[in-house]
Design a protein that fits this description.
The complex is a heterotetramer, with two copies of chain A and two copies of chain B.
Chain A: H1 7-20, H2 25-34, H3 43-49, H4 67-79, H5 86-99, H6 104-109, E1 114-117, E2 130-131, E3 140-141, E4 144-148, E5 151-162, E6 169-175, E7 181-187, E8 193-198, E9 207-220, H7 224-259, E10 261-262, E11 265-266, H8 271-300, H9 305-330, H10 342-352, H11 358-371
Parallel strand pairs in A: 1-6
Antiparallel strand pairs in A: 2-3, 4-5, 5-9, 6-7, 7-9, 8-9, 10-11
Helix pairs in contact in A: 1-4, 4-7, 4-8, 5-7, 7-8, 7-9, 7-10, 8-9, 9-10, 9-11
Chain B: H1 2-8, H2 15-30, H3 33-44, E1 50-53, E2 69-72, E3 78-87, E4 95-101, E5 112-118, E6 124-129, E7 138-148, E8 153-154, H4 160-177, H5 184-193, H6 196-199, H7 202-230, H8 239-261, H9 273-282, H10 289-299, H11 315-327
The chains are: A alpha+beta, B alpha+beta.
Chain lengths: 377, 328, 377, 328
């Protein structure tokens, strides 16, 4: 185990930072709250940077990199609240790659943008595959699937699907009558597919309610393990994004605490502020350690990946909640104004903690895995 | 009640809270007989709304650092220049109670004076300040050569700090005991009643029980404070602890409500969205939690103060010292 | 509602403080960890002070005072960790008083010391009456009761009963076959009664596992409301005790923070210490507010007493947990040594939070009451 | 591993941690060639146990305030007088690494020197110091005219503070990464596996998930630190954050375990009782959380330090100033 960035990874991170710096992503995050079309399309930039094929094998036109590399890219996007549809595309690409699907080259070049329509695998108190409900805590059943040869027909709704709007291909999980999950690649424009775009509090996060009414797609020949892996990969990506956002909250707050004076002293010299800032750092470092764990586990110990990804999301989600509020606190009244950046990170935190099962579900899975003896605690 | 009538009339429900709850008691304590006679009646009847003009961009927690200047003219009136922020109701207000610096050559707490400012005077400009929700819950107020009569002074020239402290004490009492979590317990009970899974979830129940316990404590400590007031005691700084409890419990309530509902709780017209956006700013209203805890630790528990680097330094020299420190 | 101490209540409190000051209760709390018989018998002092009959009507030889007065006495006992068996005696006396029992005068004078053998009323997720198990989170059924005329026969075990050892009369709650609770007064020395004394971590807290094997006693003619009231009264008394203990933690820590210097400053001038101490104060004041609520509700709004007592215990329990740990922290290394008083308050906190359903159960009941619309939130 | 062998031999498992994990690295960094040759071998082989003699009754968090005096004799040797506390393994140790004041007329960080002290020397008295559990996990050590040779000095006279900092860095690394919650996760998993009600309780699960997440983070940050060490980097003060996380997670684990088991968890022979009694004291070992956070805030985040009232004051005058302040 080598738990440090390789030279290539440092380069990947620098390149990502460079690409993103060409856009005023944070300013746009504010504007888009009132004018959703103010968001620039960052997919061409992602294509240029080679991100769509990051997790696709080299022989199929991808970069053949690992989850940890993807998390570094997610982190850079999160740092500047960039709206790049990787949370939809990367887990979808991982399923397509495992299936050796015919679309892989087009997906790898970014020509065809896929979106993952997630289903939560068993692994906590629920024995079956479930999806996000439109409202409330009661989980919804995953879409029902009927398989005929290479074709799958899906029926059902999945709420709050990241990056579904504008995607060309949906990679969805359905459940057959016997409870077994099955994956389908469905054209977004196919009959029986409807995608209702929704925006909730954080304009940089594109979401959609996806409804299948007898929609037909190609069956993807992958096992339940690959579909579970995609779910945890999405969790790890949310963790990566959150880590980047926390880093910005910390940097901005530290800089302000050095410059702002009260009672004749820089506010950063007061223990209350100083300890709040070190608490951001502590949580950030914990999340980073688990980001390494998730990256390492997916590559080298896949049976631990569910635990690692859940722990990373739990820690990073908690860190972002804390950091966004701390950023507002440290900045005093000005931190709660529309023109300040702090509320944008707060909006990111408020929505992220409630997506894809929420931070809470990830924490619960850490407990379940440990209690059932998976993972090496 | 007055509150209910006001809220039925679609006027912000906090209108009378600032005037009657905070500024009125200060006028009663420090105002002249003429001031009490002129202002208290219309304030109580809701005919004249008041606003509090204390905070500035460079003076929030450290309120004594206000830079808005009032200079005495030859006719013994005053000329006001400067800027205030975080002013609730400035756009509706007939009068404001304003803390200004009248002497820069003495240490900062000593050169302050409290004034009554007619908000329709020439040179007063009110500009909305948008908060997290996008709504302008607060204002910036600019003063450009505003003329004040000699009788605008409240509590005597140079006594502004003591006068301001009275307002702050009542402010803490008001925010702490006056608002009980902004209706969040009722909303939360409704939200949970509508969700069987949530209602049976031990973690949801535990979070609910903790925050309701806190809000009940604020309510019954409010009754204790009222009993003390009725017995002629003045609210002490410990009333600020009620504010800390109330704001944090309301944050916990809105977080929990939104966790149960999911992302739809973040829609602009949801029950929860406004609270979620509003509460972070409220945490700073009436002094940050950290300053409150300092004050209570020192004045209630008798703990020694922090070393102060600004003590005894003339206000005019302070900014220079700070700039130097940043440059180092 | 007059939420301040009356002159009589101030006197009661002063008198209690005076009586208790004649004993070195805190020192003894330490000695008794190694020598349980080092504890003095404080019952004669309680008799002298008139505490056994505090809640018994004046016409039956008691003082006819209210729950709030009892809580003030409990608070003074908690302040000095005094081992006075009021947690067993007072709820028992309330049941006996409601039943107009023949033993009341002897109970009021303290000649006959009763102990309440508690059963948890319905009012959360459990529909029935349950008791503490010897171990684990699964609640045990209340003893089964067979009623014949004025006689009740009980069968079953109740673990961790406060003040059972040495009591002359047990006031127990059993459940008939139809699920209805019934109260019985059983001589401690009667056939079929066994009391196994147990000590757990806090030597000042006398506990016993009480087993009834066909034990017979007098039926007490009271309704389920009286038996529920006794449970919540016990909760309120634990809250009162805890409030007193928190006050000592605060006073001792504040005094030390003024005297102890590091880096040339009294440690109480540092925000970290100052804010930790104001946090004790905040929690203490919250618990006190709810103590008033509990006292007022039992006298004037009994339908709110379950909510009020549960909230008081929840707040006071949390306050004591926090304060005992803070007391150790503020004192640095010395606060974690055997000779210091801080560990004795820590022991009190550790055991109290796990007695009679625990602080946690009280918090859960606050939620349940609020969700089911009882109480006026 | 060595650790496993030691624990099989019924010798405290932390034996090698203090010597090999903390004091050895300091000798490697600051010791003379002779000292390294003489002491490192037997330390590594477990033949000679070491203890750390830093903290004093009046110098815990503020370690530079040590009062134990070493006076140079005519023969260039030293005479040691004073008292140390919180010393683990003093009763087993062959040697101790001791921080003493050798000059009181300079500011407190400057007059310190580090010494190697043979624990069997005349005038050394070890006395067990009982902790919450009643067991003497730590010791007090008294020095009464103890004679030291000139070659007992480590790192040069007057350089004791820098030498001590090296030990403290490794101490934080050791306590943070070396102990992983004292086996609490395994115990907790077993406890919950044995209790169906607990296992299904959402609140229990949430508490469990949070603390396990923290302990996993400590483990994998430990691997990051090891990777950095292998690349030749010295552990920075941020390693102290791992200690904060680890201790608090272990406290959360023991609280949860005992909540599930009930009062029986507090029996002396329960799995939980020892941890519950041991952890509060550990929170202060290696500097309080508050001092750690100051250090990290200043050295890692670059935040400005607290105002210091003891800066540049000769050590001999400090106590007098403090006494005066208390009397005020």
């Amino acid at each position: 185990m080598n738990f440090a960035l390789s030279d290539e990874q440092a380069l990947l991170r620098e390149a990502a930072r460079g690409s993103l710096s060409r856009f005023k992503t944070v300013e746009v995050a504010r504007e888009a709250l009132e004018q959703p079309d103010a968001l620039p399309d960052l997919w061409p930039m992602a294509i240029e940077a080679g991100w769509p094929g990051l997790l696709i094998a080299e022989e199929r036109g991808g970069a053949g990199l690992g989850a940890f590399d993807a998390l570094l890219v997610a982190e850079e996007c999160g740092r500047v609240l960039a709206s790049v549809p990787l949370l939809g595309a990367l887990p979808a690409s991982a399923i397509l790659d495992a299936a050796g699907d015919e679309t892989l080259e087009a997906v790898a070049t970014g020509e065809l943008r896929p979106a993952y329509v997630p289903a939560r695998p068993p692994g906590d108190h629920d024995p079956g595959w479930t999806v996000e409900p439109a409202r409330g805590m009661t989980r919804a059943s995953a879409p029902s699937a009927a398989v005929e040869g290479d074709q799958v027909t899906l029926e059902g709704t999945v709420a709050f699907v990241p990056d579904a709007s504008g995607a060309a291909l949906l990679v969805a999980v359905g459940v057959e009558q016997d409870g077994q999950p099955v994956a389908a690649a469905i054209e977004a424009g196919a009959d029986g597919v409807s995608i209702e775009p929704v925006m909730r509090y954080d304009a940089t996060r594109s979401l959609g309610h996806v409804t299948f009414s007898g929609a037909r797609g190609r069956r993807l020949d992958v096992g339940a393990d690959v579909l579970a892996d995609a779910w945890y990969l999405a969790h790890a990506l949310i963790a990566g994004e959150s880590i980047g956002a926390v880093q910005t909250c910390l940097d901005t707050s530290v800089a302000y605490a050095k410059e702002r004076f009260t009672f004749g002293r820089a506010i950063g010299s007061y223990q209350a502020i100083k300890h709040e800032l070190t608490e951001i750092l502590r949580r950030l470092e914990n999340a980073r350690g688990l980001q390494y764990y998730a990256g390492w586990a997916r590559a080298s110990a896949p049976e631990e990946f569910p635990l690692a990804a859940s722990a990373a999301r739990s820690a990073a989600g908690g860190a972002l909640d804390f950091a966004a509020r701390a950023m507002i606190n440290v900045h005093g009244g000005i931190g709660a104004t529309w023109e300040h950046d702090a509320p944008l990170f707060f909006r990111r935190a408020q929505l992220s903690r409630r997506l894809l099962g929420g931070t809470h579900d990830a924490t619960d899975r850490v407990a379940e895995r440990t209690m059932s003896g998976v993972g090496s605690i | 009640t007055v509150n209910q009538e006001i809220s039925r009339a679609q006027v912000p429900g906090i209108l009378d809270v600032i005037g009657i709850g905070m500024l009125g008691p200060c006028l009663i304590a420090h105002g002249s007989a003429e001031q009490k006679g002129r202002y208290l009646g219309p304030m109580l009847h809701g005919d004249e709304v008041w606003c509090q003009l204390f905070s500035e961009p460079g003076a929030g927690s450290d309120l004594a650092a206000v830079q808005t200047r009032a200079r005495q003219s030859d006719d013994e009136g005053w000329t006001l220049n400067g800027q205030k922020v975080w002013t609730t109701n400035a756009q509706f207000a007939a009068y404001g109670l304003l803390l200004a610096r009248t002497d820069s050559d003495v240490p900062k707490h000593k050169g302050l004076t409290m004034f009554i400012v007619p908000m329709d005077a020439d040179g007063v400009t009110v500009r909305g300040l948008r908060q997290i929700s996008g709504e302008a819950e607060f204002n910036e107020v600019f003063f450009d050569d505003v003329r004040l009569e000699p009788d605008a002074v409240v509590g005597g020239v140079g006594n502004g700090w003591g006068t301001a402290l009275t307002v702050l004490m009542y402010e803490r009492l008001t925010i702490g005991f006056g608002s009980e979590g902004f209706g969040s317990p009722t909303r939360l009970a409704e939200t949970l009643a509508a969700d069987e899974t949530a209602r049976a979830d031990a973690d949801v129940r535990h979070r609910m029980g903790e925050l309701i316990t806190d809000l009940l404590a604020v309510r019954f400590n409010g009754y204790r404070a009222l009993t003390a007031l009725a017995q002629g005691q003045i609210p002490g700084p410990e009333a600020g602890l009620a504010k800390v409890t109330m704001v944090n419990a309301a944050i916990a309530a809105s977080d929990l409500g939104a966790d149960v509902v999911g992302p739809d709780a973040l829609e602009p017209d949801s029950d929860w969205s406004y609270l979620i956006s509003f509460l972070p700013g409220l945490k700073s209203a009436g002094g940050t939690e950290s300053i409150l805890r300092n004050t209570i630790g020192e004045r209630v528990l008798g703990l020694p103060p922090e070393p102060r680097l600004d003590k005894g330094v003339p206000f005019s020299e302070l900014r220079a010292i700070e700039k130097q420190a940043v440059a180092r």
